[in-house]
Specification:
221 residues; alpha/beta
Length: 221
Amino acid sequence: MADQAYKPALRFPALTALFDPVVAVTTRERSFKARVLERAALAPGEEVLDMGCGTGTLALAALAAEPAARVTGLDADPEVLARARRKAAGARVELDLDEGFSTELPYDDGRFDAVLSTLFFHHLEDVDKRRTAAEALRVLRPGGRLVVGDLGRSQDPLMRVAVLGTVQLLDGFATTSASVAGKLPAMLAEAGLAEVRVTDRLRTPTGTIEVITGRAARLNG
């Protein structure tokens, strides 16, 4: 993975310290991450991966929602992982945090009951969106769930202007265009995930956020 590179959460490393407050204010974070966890329906004893975990906000919320789950967070940015570790220590919870890339997940096939991801796919080039979707499917157990909360198709002209003047301006069009065009569900389905659907759409100051669910096929179909 030495030839891979990651993009800091707010594009520029100097802005990493602002990540949590910026996301909280601009994305209706509590609302859409609550929807993600509701759709995930975590159960005691389940293995859960927060892919592109950033500073650990969703992973910690998952543990709060289901303390008997085992939650692992993965991110390629060591600085945000350090922040996640401090947050976990402050909350006095056990949270496994790994450094790695979503396109080459460092986990065995079929390890996880649920894979979660929020505000991550839109940072990836389209080819890496597809590779990440395939990797998420690989590490899911048969019948396991994928739940994604991320930028989606703009609901109206106001939401189109909102995302154009914020996320797309900051992160660029090469990575965000497919998400804003509403193409991510199709990419997930093309990777082999079953029953892919958009379950929720939220208006935010930075555009429309969609919650997308899918699952790995069960062994009996």
